[in-house]
Amino acid sequence: MTRFEVTEEPSPGYDGERIMFVPSRGLFRAAISANGDITLTEDRLRSLMAAATGTEALAHGLDKLLGTAWDSELEPYRHAGDGAPMTWLTQVG
C-alpha cells in the first residue's frame, strides 16, 4: 500500500507541481505557486461554480480541487526536522 507525495519547487517562468497518491483515493496533481500554495485556474473555478448546486457542493468541490482528502490521509506519514529542505514520508505507529 504505497503512499507518496512529490513536490517540484517553482522556478523562473515555471509553476511548481505537487503530486500525491494514496491507494484509497488514487492520484492527485496540482500546480503550486512560489510560496507553496496550490493554484486553481479560472476554468476549473468557473466549471465548479457552474456545476455546484449549493454552498455545500461548492465547498466539497473546492476541497477536492485543493486535495484536502489526500493531505489528510498523508499527514500521519509526514515528518521533518527544523530547517529540513524536504519532507520525508515515514510510517508512524
Automatic annotation (TrEMBL):
* InterPro entries per record: DUF3145
Please give the name of this protein.
DUF3145 domain-containing protein
Lineage at the top is: Bacteria, Bacillati, Actinomycetota, Actinomycetes, Micromonosporales
**Taxonomically, which superkingdom?**
Bacteria
Pfam family for this entry, one: DUF3145
